[in-house]
Amino acid sequence: MEKRVFGKTGLEVSALGFGGAEIGFEGASADTVATLLNAALDAGLNVIDTAECYGNGAVTSEELIGLAVSHRRDDYYLFTKCGHNPGFDLPDWDPKMLEMSIDRSLKQLKTDHVDLLQFHGCPADLMRQGDLIALLQRARDAGKTRFIGYSGDNENARYAIECGAFDTLQTSISIADQSVLDTNLPLARQHNMGVIAKRPIANAAWRYASKPDNGYHVTYWERLHQLGYDFTGSTDATSIALRFTLSQPGVHTAIVGTTKPDRWKQNAALLNAGPLPQTQIDAIRARWREIAPPDWVGQG
């Protein structure tokens, strides 16, 4: 698995990482997650990304990850996010809630530190006040995280980049989400930030013959329907989409989630073809510029 230097953090991260949303929201079994993650680590993955709110009320992604691979803590970089309040009688972004949430994440992940602690879509106006960023910095200074980052899109992400407080940016980048390529991604590169591409295959929304019931997939389905890429009807669609995202200058790792133990290896194998040819990248970009209206901005 290809490794890339993760901006100013200096970490060497695998180009393909694991995103923990599905295992939490879909309530994957502990045995399934253990099989999936241990096989992925054996195959060269070294990035596991999750969040405090990925859960279905019975089990959380953080708990499942902690149970599955905490005994292999030196084999991977562990990223999580904070800001939301599942299980706490306090509002989102309350400083006391954040402190408790960070400590709970460490407990659930069965570790004394994460490698990256990210704000989970914090609004720019709250970040401007300074106290929340200071709280993350104190968590870093206390050894609860090695680095701090921002996960989000558009104007909130732009502020996070420009304020200079964060080491990394996690943002949506895909064949159906390209506005960042002309805005925040070049800016993040200027600041030497590590960049994590979320939703890098656009939820594979081309799989649906008609508008999906899952609202999380609808926006990308609608965009792809209008973009009309010829490759989305082929068996190479996932390969092309993933390689497009990972071919963008400044992207270090793309996180893909699954509950299927064999799927990560299948996705990793897609990268064996190497970077997407520049002619194909140019064609995808040209189609976006032709079709995409100004309000096709980054999706959280």
Can you describe this structure?
There is one protein chain. By secondary structure, this protein is an alpha/beta fold. The protein has one domain (3-291): TIM Barrel. The protein is 40% helix and 16% strand. It contains twelve helices and ten strands. The protein has an eight-stranded parallel beta barrel with strand order 3-4-5-6-7-8-9-10, surrounded by six helices. The protein has a two-stranded antiparallel sheet with strand order 1-2. α7 links the parallel β7 and β8 (168-172). The model has no long low-confidence stretch (mean pLDDT 95).
The CATH level-2 architecture is identified as Alpha-Beta Barrel
Number of helices: 12
Outline type: globular
Fraction in beta strands: 15-25%
- Number of domain modules: 1
Helix content: 40-55%
The strand line-up of the biggest sheet is 3-4-5-6-7-8-9-10
The third-level CATH topology is TIM Barrel
> What are the secondary-structure elements, in order, as H or E?
EEEHHEHEHEHHEHEHEHHEHH
* Fourth-tier CATH superfamily name: NADP-dependent oxidoreductase domain
Whole-angstrom Rg: 18 Å
The count of strands amounts to 10
On the 0 to 100 scale, the average pLDDT is 95
Distance between the termini: 27 Å
- Secondary structural class: alpha/beta
In CATH, what is the class? Alpha Beta
Low-confidence stretches: none
Largest sheet: 8 strands, parallel, barrel
